[in-house]
Amino acid sequence: MKSITVEELRELQESGADFQLIDVREDYEYDEANLGGLLIPLATVIDEADQIDKDKRVIIHCRSGKRSANAIAALEGMKGYTNLENLEGGILAYIDAFGLDD
Known about the structure:
102 residues; alpha/beta; 5-stranded parallel sheet; 4 helices
C-alpha cells in the first residue's frame, strides 16, 4: 500500500497539484474538523466508489490511518484501484504538524 506523509500532502496542497482527497471518517468527525476532502465514510466506500477518481492521484485519510488503510485495501481488492495513497497518521498528524487555521 502506498502512503504519503503529512508534509508531502501539504506540499501538494500548496503547489496546486491535481489530486483528490477522500475523508473516510464519519459525518460528525468531518463536521468537527476536516481537510476539505470529499467525505465518504468507510462503511459506504465500496458503494460510493464511483465518486473516487481512477485517473489521478487519490489520497485517502481518516483520524489516524487505520480506517483509510482498510478503505484502500477494499477499493484495491474489490474495485481494482491502483492510484490510492494512505495519509500516514491521518488528520491527527496533519493537525499536529500544521493546525487547521489556513
